[in-house]
Prior knowledge:
Layout: E1 9-14, H1 43-50, E2 60-65, H2 69-75, E3 84-87, H3 93-107, E4 112-117, E5 120-121, H4 125-142, E6 145-150, E7 161-167, E8 176-183, H5 188-196, E9 200-210, H6 211-221, H7 226-235, H8 241-251, H9 257-262, E10 268-272, E11 278-279, H10 283-287, E12 298-300, E13 303-306, E14 312-315, E15 321-324, E16 329-333, E17 338-342, H11 349-353
Parallel strand pairs: 1-2, 1-4, 2-3, 6-10, 12-14, 13-15, 14-16
Antiparallel strand pairs: 4-9, 5-11, 6-9, 7-8, 7-9, 8-10, 16-17
Helix pairs in contact: 3-6, 3-7, 7-8
Amino acid sequence: MGEIKNSLVSVCVMAGGIGERFWPLSRIMRPKQLLAITGEKTMLKETVLRHQAIASPENIYIVTTGAQADLIRKEMKELPQGNVIPEPCGRNTAPCVALAAALLYRKDPESVMVVVSADHHIPDVQAYAETIKDAVSLAVQESVLVTVGVVPRYPETGYGYIKGETEISYPGLTKAWKVSRFLEKPPLEVAEKLYKTPGFFWNAGMFVFQTKDILKAYEEFMPESWEDLKNIIAKAGTEEEREAVECYYAKVTKISIDNAVMEKASNVAVCAASFEWNDVGSWTSASAHWPKDEAGNHLKGEVKLLEAGDCIVGNYAEGLVGVIGLKDVVVIRTADATLVCARDKVQDVKKLLEGIDEKYR
Protein backbone atom coordinates (compact mmCIF):
# COMPACT_ATOMS: atom_id res chain seq x y z
CA MET A 1 0.00 0.00 0.00
CA GLY A 2 1.30 3.43 -0.94
CA GLU A 3 2.02 5.84 1.89
CA ILE A 4 0.28 9.23 2.04
CA LYS A 5 0.28 12.18 4.38
CA ASN A 6 -3.18 13.03 5.71
CA SER A 7 -2.37 16.74 5.81
CA LEU A 8 -1.91 16.78 2.04
CA VAL A 9 -5.03 14.80 1.16
CA SER A 10 -8.53 16.28 1.07
CA VAL A 11 -11.82 14.55 0.40
CA CYS A 12 -14.52 16.21 -1.65
CA VAL A 13 -17.98 14.69 -1.16
CA MET A 14 -20.48 15.61 -3.87
CA ALA A 15 -23.85 15.89 -2.14
CA GLY A 16 -25.96 18.26 -4.17
CA GLY A 17 -28.57 15.92 -5.61
CA ILE A 18 -32.17 15.53 -4.53
CA GLY A 19 -32.38 11.79 -5.12
CA GLU A 20 -35.55 12.02 -7.17
CA ARG A 21 -35.60 8.28 -7.84
CA PHE A 22 -36.13 7.81 -4.08
CA TRP A 23 -39.41 9.70 -4.08
CA PRO A 24 -41.65 9.79 -2.10
CA LEU A 25 -39.16 9.38 0.76
CA SER A 26 -36.57 11.77 -0.68
CA ARG A 27 -37.70 15.37 -1.06
CA ILE A 28 -36.09 18.71 -1.94
CA MET A 29 -35.58 19.61 1.73
CA ARG A 30 -34.96 16.00 2.80
CA PRO A 31 -32.66 14.70 0.06
CA LYS A 32 -31.41 11.13 -0.29
CA GLN A 33 -28.01 11.81 1.25
CA LEU A 34 -29.72 12.88 4.50
CA LEU A 35 -31.72 9.66 4.73
CA ALA A 36 -30.72 6.41 6.47
CA ILE A 37 -31.26 4.10 3.50
CA THR A 38 -28.67 1.34 3.94
CA GLY A 39 -28.22 1.39 7.71
CA GLU A 40 -28.81 3.34 10.91
CA LYS A 41 -26.83 6.40 9.78
CA THR A 42 -27.57 8.75 6.89
CA MET A 43 -25.82 8.13 3.58
CA LEU A 44 -23.81 11.33 4.06
CA LYS A 45 -22.77 10.43 7.62
CA GLU A 46 -21.63 6.98 6.45
CA THR A 47 -19.61 8.58 3.65
CA VAL A 48 -17.83 11.06 5.91
CA LEU A 49 -17.05 8.43 8.56
CA ARG A 50 -15.62 6.12 5.90
CA HIS A 51 -13.20 8.82 4.78
CA GLN A 52 -11.82 9.63 8.21
CA ALA A 53 -9.41 6.75 7.58
CA ILE A 54 -8.08 8.79 4.65
CA ALA A 55 -8.25 12.43 5.73
CA SER A 56 -8.74 14.31 8.98
CA PRO A 57 -12.15 16.00 9.52
CA GLU A 58 -10.76 19.46 8.74
CA ASN A 59 -9.77 18.15 5.32
CA ILE A 60 -13.16 16.66 4.42
CA TYR A 61 -15.36 18.97 2.34
CA ILE A 62 -18.95 18.66 1.16
CA VAL A 63 -20.13 20.43 -1.99
CA THR A 64 -23.88 20.87 -2.09
CA THR A 65 -26.63 23.24 -3.18
CA GLY A 66 -27.26 26.50 -1.39
CA ALA A 67 -30.70 25.24 -0.34
CA GLN A 68 -29.23 22.16 1.35
CA ALA A 69 -26.13 23.75 2.91
CA ASP A 70 -27.66 24.52 6.31
CA LEU A 71 -29.28 21.08 6.52
CA ILE A 72 -25.92 19.44 5.87
CA ARG A 73 -24.12 21.66 8.39
CA LYS A 74 -26.60 20.52 11.04
CA GLU A 75 -26.10 16.88 10.06
CA MET A 76 -22.30 17.10 9.95
CA LYS A 77 -21.45 19.12 13.06
CA GLU A 78 -18.15 17.26 13.43
CA LEU A 79 -16.83 19.07 10.33
CA PRO A 80 -15.84 22.75 10.29
CA GLN A 81 -18.87 24.74 9.12
CA GLY A 82 -16.78 26.32 6.36
CA ASN A 83 -16.13 22.86 4.89
CA VAL A 84 -19.67 22.80 3.52
CA ILE A 85 -19.31 24.51 0.15
CA PRO A 86 -22.59 25.74 -1.40
CA GLU A 87 -23.01 25.91 -5.17
CA PRO A 88 -25.11 28.80 -6.52
CA CYS A 89 -26.97 26.27 -8.69
CA GLY A 90 -26.58 22.71 -9.92
CA ARG A 91 -24.33 22.33 -12.98
CA ASN A 92 -23.53 18.59 -12.80
CA THR A 93 -20.24 17.18 -11.53
CA ALA A 94 -17.62 18.97 -13.67
CA PRO A 95 -18.23 22.46 -12.18
CA CYS A 96 -18.67 20.91 -8.72
CA VAL A 97 -15.21 19.30 -8.85
CA ALA A 98 -13.71 22.42 -10.42
CA LEU A 99 -14.96 24.60 -7.58
CA ALA A 100 -13.53 22.28 -4.93
CA ALA A 101 -10.22 21.99 -6.81
CA ALA A 102 -9.88 25.76 -7.08
CA LEU A 103 -10.46 26.31 -3.37
CA LEU A 104 -8.15 23.46 -2.34
CA TYR A 105 -5.40 24.57 -4.71
CA ARG A 106 -5.44 28.04 -3.14
CA LYS A 107 -4.90 26.45 0.27
CA ASP A 108 -2.16 24.08 -0.93
CA PRO A 109 -0.95 23.90 -4.57
CA GLU A 110 0.49 20.43 -3.89
CA SER A 111 -2.74 19.05 -2.45
CA VAL A 112 -4.38 15.81 -3.56
CA MET A 113 -8.14 15.46 -3.70
CA VAL A 114 -10.33 12.39 -3.42
CA VAL A 115 -13.71 12.96 -5.10
CA VAL A 116 -16.68 10.77 -4.15
CA SER A 117 -20.47 10.82 -4.12
CA ALA A 118 -22.59 10.72 -0.98
CA ASP A 119 -24.76 7.81 -2.15
CA HIS A 120 -22.32 4.88 -2.32
CA HIS A 121 -22.53 1.91 0.02
CA ILE A 122 -19.13 0.37 0.87
CA PRO A 123 -19.20 -2.06 3.82
CA ASP A 124 -15.45 -2.84 4.00
CA VAL A 125 -14.00 0.48 5.12
CA GLN A 126 -10.46 -0.86 5.57
CA ALA A 127 -10.23 -2.33 2.06
CA TYR A 128 -11.67 0.88 0.65
CA ALA A 129 -9.13 3.04 2.50
CA GLU A 130 -6.26 0.88 1.25
CA THR A 131 -7.42 1.23 -2.35
CA ILE A 132 -7.84 5.00 -2.09
CA LYS A 133 -4.44 5.43 -0.44
CA ASP A 134 -2.88 3.48 -3.30
CA ALA A 135 -4.76 5.68 -5.77
CA VAL A 136 -3.32 8.76 -4.06
CA SER A 137 0.19 7.31 -4.32
CA LEU A 138 -0.38 6.61 -8.03
CA ALA A 139 -1.78 10.08 -8.72
CA VAL A 140 1.25 11.75 -7.13
CA GLN A 141 3.89 9.47 -8.66
CA GLU A 142 2.56 9.46 -12.22
CA SER A 143 0.67 12.81 -12.32
CA VAL A 144 -2.38 10.92 -13.58
CA LEU A 145 -6.09 11.42 -13.10
CA VAL A 146 -7.16 8.27 -11.29
CA THR A 147 -10.62 6.72 -11.39
CA VAL A 148 -11.58 3.74 -9.26
CA GLY A 149 -13.13 0.90 -11.27
CA VAL A 150 -15.27 -1.93 -9.93
CA VAL A 151 -14.98 -5.40 -11.45
CA PRO A 152 -18.44 -6.10 -12.94
CA ARG A 153 -20.51 -8.67 -11.06
CA TYR A 154 -23.19 -8.90 -13.75
CA PRO A 155 -24.04 -7.20 -17.10
CA GLU A 156 -25.26 -3.87 -15.68
CA THR A 157 -26.78 -1.38 -18.16
CA GLY A 158 -27.11 1.46 -15.67
CA TYR A 159 -23.37 2.10 -15.24
CA GLY A 160 -20.69 3.35 -17.59
CA TYR A 161 -17.66 1.15 -18.26
CA ILE A 162 -13.90 1.80 -18.28
CA LYS A 163 -11.29 -0.17 -20.24
CA GLY A 164 -7.90 -0.62 -18.58
CA GLU A 165 -5.17 -1.33 -21.14
CA THR A 166 -1.54 -1.18 -19.97
CA GLU A 167 -0.70 -2.08 -16.38
CA ILE A 168 1.15 0.60 -14.42
CA SER A 169 4.01 -0.19 -12.05
CA TYR A 170 4.03 1.84 -8.80
CA PRO A 171 4.55 1.12 -5.06
CA GLY A 172 0.91 0.34 -4.27
CA LEU A 173 -0.65 -3.13 -3.95
CA THR A 174 -3.80 -2.16 -5.86
CA LYS A 175 -3.51 -3.04 -9.54
CA ALA A 176 -3.75 -0.09 -11.91
CA TRP A 177 -3.90 0.37 -15.66
CA LYS A 178 -3.74 3.19 -18.16
CA VAL A 179 -7.28 3.85 -19.40
CA SER A 180 -7.86 3.35 -23.12
CA ARG A 181 -11.56 4.15 -23.35
CA PHE A 182 -14.77 5.06 -21.56
CA LEU A 183 -18.15 3.67 -22.58
CA GLU A 184 -21.51 5.22 -21.74
CA LYS A 185 -24.29 3.10 -20.24
CA PRO A 186 -24.56 0.25 -22.77
CA PRO A 187 -27.54 -1.74 -24.03
CA LEU A 188 -27.89 -5.22 -22.54
CA GLU A 189 -26.25 -7.09 -25.43
CA VAL A 190 -23.16 -4.89 -25.15
CA ALA A 191 -23.10 -5.07 -21.34
CA GLU A 192 -23.11 -8.88 -21.56
CA LYS A 193 -19.96 -8.77 -23.70
CA LEU A 194 -18.20 -6.21 -21.49
CA TYR A 195 -19.03 -8.22 -18.37
CA LYS A 196 -17.19 -11.23 -19.79
CA THR A 197 -14.20 -9.29 -21.21
CA PRO A 198 -11.13 -8.92 -18.93
CA GLY A 199 -9.98 -5.36 -18.36
CA PHE A 200 -13.41 -3.72 -18.23
CA PHE A 201 -14.64 -2.06 -15.05
CA TRP A 202 -17.78 -0.33 -13.89
CA ASN A 203 -17.24 3.42 -13.68
CA ALA A 204 -17.95 3.99 -9.99
CA GLY A 205 -17.64 7.77 -10.10
CA MET A 206 -14.74 7.93 -7.63
CA PHE A 207 -11.67 9.98 -8.55
CA VAL A 208 -8.25 10.85 -7.15
CA PHE A 209 -5.88 13.49 -8.53
CA GLN A 210 -3.54 16.28 -7.60
CA THR A 211 -5.42 19.58 -7.68
CA LYS A 212 -2.81 21.06 -10.02
CA ASP A 213 -3.32 18.18 -12.47
CA ILE A 214 -7.11 18.40 -12.60
CA LEU A 215 -6.96 22.19 -12.94
CA LYS A 216 -4.57 21.80 -15.86
CA ALA A 217 -7.14 19.48 -17.45
CA TYR A 218 -9.90 22.06 -16.96
CA GLU A 219 -7.72 24.67 -18.64
CA GLU A 220 -7.28 22.35 -21.63
CA PHE A 221 -10.74 20.86 -21.97
CA MET A 222 -13.02 23.64 -20.66
CA PRO A 223 -11.13 26.74 -21.88
CA GLU A 224 -14.29 28.83 -22.24
CA SER A 225 -14.67 28.99 -18.43
CA TRP A 226 -11.00 28.83 -17.44
CA GLU A 227 -10.59 32.56 -16.73
CA ASP A 228 -13.57 32.49 -14.39
CA LEU A 229 -12.15 29.44 -12.64
CA LYS A 230 -8.77 31.17 -12.26
CA ASN A 231 -10.65 34.08 -10.72
CA ILE A 232 -12.03 31.78 -8.02
CA ILE A 233 -8.48 30.67 -7.20
CA ALA A 234 -7.36 34.30 -6.98
CA LYS A 235 -10.31 35.39 -4.81
CA ALA A 236 -10.52 32.29 -2.59
CA GLY A 237 -10.54 33.18 1.08
CA THR A 238 -11.43 36.82 0.45
CA GLU A 239 -14.71 38.75 0.60
CA GLU A 240 -14.86 38.51 -3.20
CA GLU A 241 -14.83 34.70 -3.30
CA ARG A 242 -18.61 34.29 -3.44
CA GLU A 243 -18.96 36.77 -6.28
CA ALA A 244 -16.28 34.92 -8.25
CA VAL A 245 -18.07 31.60 -7.69
CA GLU A 246 -21.40 33.01 -8.83
CA CYS A 247 -19.78 34.47 -11.95
CA TYR A 248 -18.30 31.07 -12.81
CA TYR A 249 -21.57 29.20 -12.33
CA ALA A 250 -23.52 31.76 -14.36
CA LYS A 251 -21.48 30.90 -17.46
CA VAL A 252 -20.11 27.36 -17.06
CA THR A 253 -21.49 24.46 -19.09
CA LYS A 254 -23.66 21.92 -17.30
CA ILE A 255 -21.68 18.72 -17.82
CA SER A 256 -20.29 15.71 -15.94
CA ILE A 257 -16.61 15.41 -15.13
CA ASP A 258 -16.50 12.19 -17.16
CA ASN A 259 -17.75 13.89 -20.32
CA ALA A 260 -15.85 17.12 -19.77
CA VAL A 261 -12.44 15.84 -18.70
CA MET A 262 -11.89 12.15 -17.99
CA GLU A 263 -12.95 10.86 -21.42
CA LYS A 264 -10.72 13.40 -23.18
CA ALA A 265 -7.55 13.35 -21.09
CA SER A 266 -4.63 11.09 -22.06
CA ASN A 267 -3.26 10.78 -18.51
CA VAL A 268 -6.09 8.74 -16.97
CA ALA A 269 -5.55 5.58 -14.92
CA VAL A 270 -7.93 3.12 -13.29
CA CYS A 271 -7.37 1.37 -9.96
CA ALA A 272 -9.26 -1.89 -9.45
CA ALA A 273 -11.48 -1.75 -6.38
CA SER A 274 -10.75 -4.49 -3.84
CA PHE A 275 -13.99 -3.84 -1.96
CA GLU A 276 -17.73 -4.38 -2.36
CA TRP A 277 -19.42 -1.33 -3.87
CA ASN A 278 -23.02 -0.42 -4.53
CA ASP A 279 -24.38 2.74 -6.08
CA VAL A 280 -27.59 3.29 -4.13
CA GLY A 281 -29.42 4.98 -6.97
CA SER A 282 -32.93 3.54 -6.88
CA TRP A 283 -35.37 1.56 -4.76
CA THR A 284 -34.08 -1.61 -6.39
CA SER A 285 -30.53 -1.08 -5.12
CA ALA A 286 -31.69 0.22 -1.73
CA SER A 287 -33.94 -2.78 -1.11
CA ALA A 288 -30.96 -5.11 -1.40
CA HIS A 289 -30.17 -4.04 2.18
CA TRP A 290 -33.66 -4.92 3.47
CA PRO A 291 -34.89 -8.27 4.85
CA LYS A 292 -35.94 -10.72 2.12
CA ASP A 293 -38.66 -13.35 2.49
CA GLU A 294 -38.93 -16.79 0.87
CA ALA A 295 -40.86 -15.40 -2.12
CA GLY A 296 -38.10 -12.92 -2.97
CA ASN A 297 -39.89 -9.89 -1.55
CA HIS A 298 -37.75 -7.16 0.02
CA LEU A 299 -39.65 -5.61 2.93
CA LYS A 300 -39.25 -2.64 5.26
CA GLY A 301 -41.67 -1.44 7.90
CA GLU A 302 -45.10 -2.83 8.77
CA VAL A 303 -46.25 -4.78 5.71
CA LYS A 304 -48.29 -7.89 4.96
CA LEU A 305 -48.08 -9.80 1.67
CA LEU A 306 -50.26 -12.58 0.29
CA GLU A 307 -49.43 -14.52 -2.88
CA ALA A 308 -46.89 -11.86 -3.89
CA GLY A 309 -43.39 -12.39 -5.22
CA ASP A 310 -40.26 -10.40 -6.03
CA CYS A 311 -41.83 -7.18 -4.76
CA ILE A 312 -40.22 -4.23 -2.99
CA VAL A 313 -42.45 -2.85 -0.24
CA GLY A 314 -41.30 -0.06 2.05
CA ASN A 315 -43.65 1.43 4.64
CA TYR A 316 -42.31 4.64 6.18
CA ALA A 317 -45.60 5.71 7.75
CA GLU A 318 -47.86 4.58 10.57
CA GLY A 319 -50.25 1.74 9.85
CA LEU A 320 -50.08 -1.30 7.60
CA VAL A 321 -49.40 -1.81 3.89
CA GLY A 322 -51.00 -4.91 2.36
CA VAL A 323 -50.13 -6.40 -1.05
CA ILE A 324 -52.05 -9.29 -2.62
CA GLY A 325 -51.37 -11.29 -5.77
CA LEU A 326 -48.74 -9.02 -7.31
CA LYS A 327 -45.30 -9.76 -8.73
CA ASP A 328 -42.34 -7.48 -9.51
CA VAL A 329 -44.03 -4.41 -8.05
CA VAL A 330 -42.57 -1.57 -5.96
CA VAL A 331 -44.70 0.03 -3.24
CA ILE A 332 -43.26 2.87 -1.14
CA ARG A 333 -45.51 4.63 1.37
CA THR A 334 -44.85 7.81 3.36
CA ALA A 335 -47.17 9.99 5.44
CA ASP A 336 -48.37 12.09 2.50
CA ALA A 337 -47.56 10.15 -0.67
CA THR A 338 -47.39 6.60 -2.04
CA LEU A 339 -45.49 5.24 -5.02
CA VAL A 340 -46.66 2.13 -6.87
CA CYS A 341 -44.75 1.04 -9.97
CA ALA A 342 -43.45 -1.95 -11.88
CA ARG A 343 -40.06 -3.06 -10.60
CA ASP A 344 -38.44 -2.46 -14.00
CA LYS A 345 -39.74 1.14 -14.04
CA VAL A 346 -38.04 2.48 -10.91
CA GLN A 347 -35.72 4.61 -13.04
CA ASP A 348 -38.79 6.48 -14.36
CA VAL A 349 -39.76 8.00 -11.00
CA LYS A 350 -38.00 11.22 -12.07
CA LYS A 351 -40.39 11.46 -15.03
CA LEU A 352 -43.36 11.06 -12.70
CA LEU A 353 -42.21 14.03 -10.61
CA GLU A 354 -42.33 16.36 -13.60
CA GLY A 355 -46.10 16.49 -13.31
CA ILE A 356 -46.47 16.46 -9.53
CA ASP A 357 -47.50 19.44 -7.43
CA GLU A 358 -44.58 21.21 -5.74
CA LYS A 359 -45.93 20.47 -2.25
CA TYR A 360 -45.26 16.75 -2.83
CA ARG A 361 -41.70 17.30 -4.04
